[in-house]
Amino acid sequence: MPHADSSLVPSTITSKTEFWDHVHSQLQALLTGQRNWVTNLSNASSLIYSSLLAFSVHFGDGERAVNWCGFYLIPPLFPVPRFLGKSASPRSDATDATSTILLGPFCGKPACQYINVKPGKSRGVCADAYLQRRTILVENVHSYPGHIACDGETKSEVVCPLTLTEDGKEVILGVLDLDCLALSGFDNYDQVGLEKIAKLVVDACDW
Ligand code: SME
């Protein structure tokens, strides 16, 4: 099967639970044999985004379409420059290991390169999900205090933390963020489905 076909949604799927089970098994197949997080998160964001679009077009009203799906991750995961020439700039606040998360693989329009997650100084849905280590469902982004509008067309959002358990300790790696053009675009079924997908992605990669 061509890789792109993994985002097709069969017409036998009519509920959100069936939809997320289907996306989970398609993603499991896509991640098999690969443990690089850049590669796997790239395919994960594409699969979730493309499958949700297909589902909303065929089984919904098409108006509830997802308009962004991607990851923000802790800076130590990212590569450091191998060749530091004269043009190299000093490490900026945007790559500070403890106070920001950086834009990773995503699908959709361009977005903020980094998000401040310093306790007491942060704002927005991603920072809150990261700091509180819990999924945040936002029915109307305009009513969410501190929401960061990367795209003025976004009306609702859901953000899941990515956590890894290492030596019995929970480590936060970043967040999975989805935006929608409609109000209340995501519900508890999406939350459950996305949390399972976040776990699958974390377990499938070497960090
Ligand atoms: N809305 C997010 C910012 C990231 S974008 O939606 C891609 C927030 O409030 O944290």
TrEMBL record:
> Record's superkingdom?
Eukaryota
Its recorded name reads GAF domain-like protein
The top of its lineage is: Eukaryota, Fungi, Dikarya, Basidiomycota, Agaricomycotina
